[in-house]
Specification:
The complex is a heterodimer of chains A (about 450) and B (about 350).
Chain A lengths: L5 H38 L5 H20 L4 H16 L6 H20 L2 H27 L8 H8 L13 H8 L6 H24 L3 H5 L6 H33 L5 E3 L2 E3 L7 H5 L4 H8 L1 H15 L4 H15 L4 H28 L20 H22 L9 H10 L3 H15 L2
Antiparallel strand pairs in A: 1-2
Chain B lengths: L4 H13 L7 H4 L10 H5 L5 H9 L1 H21 L11 H8 L4 H23 L18 H6 L5 H4 L7 H12 L10 H18 L3 E7 L7 E7 L3 H13 L2 E5 L6 E3 L13 E2 L9 E2 L4 E2 L5 E2 L9 H4 L5 E17 L3 E16 L1
Parallel strand pairs in B: 3-5
Antiparallel strand pairs in B: 1-2, 3-4, 6-7, 8-10, 9-10
Helix pairs in contact in B: 1-6, 4-5, 5-7, 5-12, 7-10, 7-11, 7-12, 10-11, 11-12
Classes of the chains: A mainly alpha (about 450), B alpha+beta (about 350).
């Protein structure tokens, strides 16, 4: 593209990228959206609950087939296996850990033995959602949040809920049962669906047509050889980010359209499902904020079912176990595992360092924004802003570094290593330096 | 002596693209002297029926055809820049090349057909031609070739939307380039020309690439957006040069309709191979009859041992060294928006020239 003039480039971009992208974006998901809508409408017909669960199972099966064809059997097998374990352990109080181990074994076998990489990587999103749902249900049963093992049709309805089966997100079993009661159709519900859908298409366009050509076509920065590497890494990173937001907003769309994703307080119903917060990732305060804003339901799941249960072993161990669990849920992809573990160390060290600085300086420089009534003495001094700004820039650099090896086709281990070597292992070295600094000020 | 019309036709085609008083199309690019492509239709009275029809009904396609021909010639000049014959498109000598059935002629026919295919296809994608729309609206499924090349389970999601519609460019190239030669003439030259045109078009059509981006939870490939893209024209040129180097010599079959490879144990050329029937001259000395300009005064590389080296390029006549001082652009800067400004620097260059 470098040899095209700016005018020629934008002309070609419009017809060669914007139009095909929107067309393909809608072409592949319109059936999913339609099925979600049909499911929602049919639930409003006053059907008995049995038929409501059954209708979403049928819808879920059909959409799985739409996207994965016969490979959907692996998702079905996983869900049947989960129900079998729950049923066999119905009198036990350790269903959560046992089911977790079973799912882990299944995913590892699948990754290593059962099928080719390409197919598995297509489906791992759905596998991940099924696994998260089953594990959360098992732990909730152990704690009594869910009072008895659901019937097969309820379980399958939850697992194959058409609003979340393809693009997520994870929702709890109780949220699903709330959705089955079926709230009234309303303008706010419809507007939420439409707005999320429009946002998803916008993010897809940015991911495909803006990010890859950001420099120098959209932002006239040329840079020397070194800077060019980082600019290119930022472009790749941004493209990956907006692909994630596309999927997140699409998940919001399907979930809302299917009738879930609301909060209710005193008869005040809000259709307010939020999966990702793009602004908090693109203009981050800290890596901790980035991590939670990337996928909120998943953050909640990891916090509830992994982090808190692992805290008894210490906070560092808990954090590493959380990132390990996240990596395993994403399949044994080396580069995702490597990125997530690196992310784990980065967030932990940033967290403890900022906590220490906050104590020493008595200032609002924590990883998370202080509430307005905190007791720190220094809140709005210039140097407080400078410190926070520095950490924000660091977060941007980490994001560029970590996102640079996500490509249209999944890479192999050597590609991740090669990419990080190209960027001189900058984030790793910086993280190490911050850790040394942290040890010095203990 | 009767001049074969097909040769004259193509020679006229190139002549009209290059004003007689300008040496080589190289200098004419961007020049106001480049003729309006539509003048091809007015001045070339001996256009074949199909070409005349295209001129009357679809002049904007003829516009793209002319662009494609220029693209082909420029690529030819690039690919042959270090060889004795370097595709200089002066009118008389170039026309002589086109009147023979040598390898060089085969390359010119193929690269021109490829250039036309490429330019028309690109014009489609950029919305400049109303006659063609998105390929998706004509054939929504993936081409069979693509299906057999990739993993079958991914085919469903790999193709859609409005990529480069190579079929349209292919058809227009065929209509225009092959027009006269389809009217019952089946002499050996016609068959060779048609074959080489087809080889050029296939060098574009058979090498379309698919670019995809994955979308899904955490980068999984649940959903993909893909485009069909033409190969870069430099790739097409490189590919055709390979086929030029491996071209097959043929002769006419007894039925007057087929071509037979010359020589024992030679595989018959397939659709993508280039073919010729006469041996090339050595292009060492000027020869009006063969269209050879000779290599006297050509720049050569005194340290290279390949075709660009002085020994081979100068036909062992020797070379002389010369120092010249040139002006070049340097210290270029981009200014928002959207101008690049450069300074002029004097550069001393050592040249080796053929005796």
């Amino acid at each position: 593209m470098g040899s095209l003039s700016r005018q020629a480039f934008f002309q070609e971009l419009g017809s060669g990228c914007l139009l095909p992208t929107v067309q393909q974006g809608l072409e592949q998901v319109w059936q999913l959206l339609l099925i979600c809508l049909v499911c929602r409408l049919s639930w409003r017909l006053g059907l008995p609950n049995f038929l409501k669960h059954l209708s979403t199972v049928v819808g879920g099966f059909y959409t799985l087939y739409l996207f994965f064809e016969l490979h959907m059997v692996w998702v079905v097998l996983l869900s049947l296996l989960c129900y079998l374990i729950l049923f066999l352990c119905r009198h036990s109080s350790s269903r959560g850990p046992f089911l977790s181990i079973t799912i882990l074994i299944y995913l590892l076998l699948g990754e290593l033995h059962m099928m080719d990489t390409t197919t598995w990587h297509k489906m791992r999103g759905s596998q991940m959602v099924v696994a998260m749902k089953a594990v959360s249900l098992a732990f909730d049963l152990d704690k009594g949040i869910v009072d008895k093992v659901p019937s097969p049709v309820e379980f399958m309805g939850y697992i194959y809920f058409v609003g979340t089966v393809i693009f997520g997100p994870w929702i709890s079993f109780n949220s699903y049962m709330d959705a089955v009661e079926s709230r009234k159709l309303s303008v706010s519900w419809f507007m939420k669906s439409v707005i999320s859908c429009v946002k998803s298409q916008l993010c897809l366009l940015i991911s495909n047509c803006v990010a890859p050509y950001l420099f120098p076509y959209f932002i006239p920065v040329f840079g020397n050889k070194l800077l060019r590497k980082w600019l290119q890494a930022y472009e790749n990173s941004l493209s990956f980010h907006f692909s994630n937001y596309f999927v997140s907003f699409l998940g919001e769309t399907t979930t809302t359209l299917a009738g879930a994703g609301f909060t209710e307080e005193k008869d005040n119903l809000k259709w307010d499902m939020t999966i990702a917060k793009p602004l908090y990732v693109e203009f981050p305060r800290s890596m901790v904020e980035v991590v939670t804003s990337w996928n909120l339901p998943m953050s909640r799941w990891l916090n509830t079912y992994v982090f808190r249960k692992a805290l008894r072993y210490g906070s560092f161990t808990a954090i590493i176990m959380t990132y390990t669990a996240s990596a395993l849920l994403h399949g044994l992809s080396f580069h995702i595992g490597a990125v997530l573990l690196t992310l784990g160390f980065i967030t932990y060290i940033e967290h403890v360092l900022r906590k220490r600085l906050s104590a020493i300086l008595n200032a609002c420089v924590l990883s998370k924004r202080c509430p307005s009534d905190c007791k720190h003495r220094h809140k709005k001094e210039l140097w407080v802003y400078l410190i926070n700004g520095t950490f924000s820039m660091l977060a941007l650099l980490h994001l560029t570094y970590l996102g640079s090896d996500f490509r249209p086709q999944d890479g192999v281990a050597s590609h991740t290593i090669q990419k990080w070597t190209q960027l001189s292992w900058t984030s790793h070295w910086l993280t190490f330096a911050l850790w040394v600094f942290y040890r010095l000020i203990l | 002596m009767t001049i074969p019309l097909s040769r004259t036709q193509l020679a006229l085609f190139f002549i009209l693209l290059c004003p007689v008083n300008i040496i080589g199309l190289w200098w004419a690019v961007g020049s106001p002297l480049v003729m309006d492509p539509n003048s091809i239709c007015r001045k070339t009275k001996r256009l074949a029926g199909k070409q005349a029809e295209l001129c009357q009904t679809q002049p904007e396609i003829v516009n793209e055809v002319a662009k494609g021909a220029k693209l082909g010639v420029r690529e030819c000049q690039y690919q042959f820049r270090f060889r004795r014959w370097n595709c200089t498109s002066q009118n008389k000598y170039f026309g002589k090349i086109l009147q023979q059935d040598i390898r060089e002629t085969a390359f010119v026919y193929a690269i021109t057909a490829a250039g036309v295919t490429h330019a028309v296809t690109q014009a489609c994608s950029m919305g400049e031609l109303l006659q063609c729309g998105c390929e998706a609206t004509r054939s929504r499924g993936p081409p069979p070739r693509l299906a057999s090349m990739g993993p079958t389970e991914g085919v469903k999601w790999e193709w859609g939307g409005c990529g480069d519609d190579v079929e349209f460019g292919y058809e227009k190239s065929k209509q225009f380039m092959d027009a006269r030669r389809r009217k019952g003439k089946s002499d050996i030259r016609t068959l060779i020309d048609l074959h080489n045109n087809e080889a050029g078009r296939l060098a574009v059509k058979n090498y379309m690439r698919t670019e995809c981006k994955c979308h899904g939870l955490s980068g999984s490939c649940t959903l993909r957006t893909c485009w069909k893209k033409m190969p870069h024209f430099r790739e097409v040129g490189d590919r055709l040069l390979e086929r030029f180097n491996g071209a097959s010599k043929v002769m006419g079959g007894n039925d007057g309709k087929t071509l037979i490879p010359v020589g024992q144990n030679i595989k018959p050329p397939d659709k993508q191979d280039l073919i010729y029937s006469a041996e090339s001259p050595d292009f060492c000395l000027p020869n009006r009859k063969t269209g050879s300009l000779g290599t006297r005064g050509r720049t050569c590389n005194s340290t290279a041992l390949d075709v660009s080296g002085c020994d081979l390029l100068c036909c062992e006549r020797g070379h002389r060294d010369e120092t010249v001082v040139l002006e070049e652009n340097c210290l270029c800067r981009f200014h928002w928006c959207c101008v690049v400004q450069c300074k002029k620097c004097l550069v001393r260059k050592e040249l080796s020239l053929c005796q």
